[in-house]
Specification:
heterodimer; A: 294 residues; mainly alpha; 63% helix; B: 224 residues; Alpha-Beta Plaits; 6 helices
């Protein structure tokens, strides 16, 4: 069984040295595979993530519906004017993967297809920034997955069950945890980063325009990535979110169960219910205008 | 609130987007139907229900189901072009429509398929989320087939001793049965066994099962 609480994962991290090593040990034990085989398999997933980033950054085409596509390429073609280059790169990578997903390309669900950009966006850029080696990056992915297991055990990971907070919110928390460890933060700080990331997205609803994993999903991968980066910075600086991570996850579960069905992937409420969304959904082949009027 | 079996179900699966339920799950469902047929169907009529009908095309559910029928895995990039590739792969006649299939899971599809021998099959199933699927109907028989374990689908005649003969044959080869369902059209008529096993059933065992008295057809469904 996966770790059922961050508390339990943290205790194992103290035994094994890091969250990533604790995740690796449990996975190897549970599935009866060698740690080396687990590392190799997650390494292969990392390679798929990197492939999706490269593909998405280079592809300016739109999805079949015409609703999304090309924003990752736009981001990297311009000089960042407000955030630094690393932050811009992380946001662009997250959008790139989400756009590949929308175009029916190959991605790694993390934890879902709709939220598949956040973890690769955050981890690949932080890995480059801190000059982490491949094994360290793979261990950070395993740590992130272990937190995803905790969230699955205590709450949920799907928009239909708990809204977007369960998908992008969980992805941002997972990414923040992995990235903090990757940057040399101790396990407790990594948990803090996850708490900072998840609290920032509590209540986020799942409201896909036309029921497609496109609007706002692609954009939410970018904003979720930014939230994760902020959370990592806070935690590495030593800031402490006063509610423990397990309780933040439980709060996410309560909030998710309080959300009406119209805000849980049914494409009825939220952005999906706006006049423009309804018009787009009625004419799925009409390419969306980039930015029309305010 | 589910305890995952593996971290690769959290970061993973590797899949063609956009949706684990509407795309990857649909592909696995098509793959299970293909295994029940024992190969690529030459004709298929797919009926999409509920959320599959409402947002399925935008999620490529139609393409994913066909990709599964063609034997493509959920992470095979050909999934996107499955409708265009179908004819070249031997699936000559393909029809896709939408209908209300009644009180079933929102992500349900009914596949009416014709195999290479001209035998017609009905396979109905649902995508339960996260890529997990369940075949709920084979022909007129209610079943519960998830693809988590290898399975045998045995069409047989409802008569005393057939179930015992099949399970005895498996026991003789030290193949452990993890789960088993038996259903029949009516007493003494056509019946169906679904047997989930801990290990895949070897060729010669499947052949000897097919030769048993009262057994009409044996299909091996790999874990997918």
């Amino acid at each position: 069984m996966a770790y059922a609480s961050f508390r339990e994962l943290l205790a194992a991290a103290h035994k094994h040295g890091t969250l990533g090593r604790a995740a690796l040990a449990r996975e190897a034990e549970e599935t009866g595979t060698s740690p080396a085989a687990v590392m190799e398999r997650m390494g292969a997933s990392l390679a798929v993530m990197e492939g999706a980033i490269a593909e998405g950054l280079a592809d300016t085409s739109r999805s079949r519906s015409g609703l999304v596509g090309g924003d990752a390429a736009l981001l990297v073609s311009a000089t960042p004017r407000v955030v630094d280059a690393a932050t811009r790169d992380a946001i662009a990578a997250a959008i790139a993967v989400a756009e590949v997903n929308a175009r029916m390309g190959r991605i790694v669900a993390a934890p879902t297809g709709g939220a598949s950009g956040v973890v690769p966006g955050v981890l690949t850029v932080v890995a480059r920034r801190v000059e982490a080696d491949r094994d360290e990056t793979v261990l950070a992915l395993l740590a992130a997955a272990a937190l995803g297991g905790v969230i699955a055990a205590r709450a949920f990971l799907s928009g239909a069950a708990g809204g977007c907070q369960a998908e992008i919110g969980s992805a941002a928390a997972m990414a923040a945890l992995g990235a903090t460890e990757l940057a040399g933060g101790p396990p407790r700080a990594a948990g803090n980063a996850a708490a900072f990331a998840l609290q920032g997205q509590l209540g986020l609803v799942c409201d896909p325009v036309g029921g497609l994993v496109e609007v706002p999903c692609v954009a939410r991968n970018a904003t979720g990535t930014a939230v994760a980066l902020v959370a990592v910075e806070l935690a590495l600086a030593g800031a402490c979110f006063p509610i423990p991570l397990d309780e933040v996850v439980d709060a996410m579960s309560h909030v998710g169960r309080s959300l009406p069905p119209s805000l849980r992937e049914t494409a009825v409420g939220g952005l999906a219910g706006t006049p423009t969304a309804r018009a787009l959904a009625a004419q799925p082949d009409r390419p969306a205008d980039r930015c029309t009027e305010a | 609130m589910t305890r995952q079996r593996s971290l690769f179900e959290i970061i993973g699966p590797v899949m063609v987007g956009p949706s684990s339920s509407h795309t990857a799950g649909a592909c696995r469902l098509g793959g299970l139907a293909r295994a029940i047929l024992g190969g690529t169907p030459c004709a298929a009529r797919l009926t999409l229900h509920g959320s599959f009908a409402k947002t399925g095309r935008g999620h490529g559910t139609d393409r994913a189901l066909v990709a599964g029928l063609l034997g493509y895995a959920p992470d095979d990039v050909r999934l996107k072009d499955a409708l265009e590739l179908a004819e070249g792969e031997g699936l000559a006649a393909l029809a896709i429509d939408e209908a209300d299939l009644g009180d079933v899971h929102p992500n349900t599809a009914r596949l009416e398929l014709t195999d290479a021998q001209g035998r017609e099959w009905v396979v109905q199933g649902s995508s339960l989320g996260g890529g997990d699927v369940e075949v709920t109907l084979v022909d007129d028989f209610p079943v519960q087939l998830t693809g988590e374990l290898p399975a045998l689908v045995v069409v047989h005649h409802d008569q005393p001793g057939v179930v015992a003969a099949v399970t005895a044959r498996l026991a003789a080869d030290v193949i452990n049965i993890a789960g088993m369902q038996v259903s029949r059209e009516q007493r003494g008529a056509r019946a169906l066994m679904v047997i989930e096993t801990d290990e895949p059933v070897p060729d010669e065992v499947a052949a000897s099962l097919a030769a048993l008295e009262g057994v009409a057809e044996v299909r091996r469904i790999p874990a997918v």
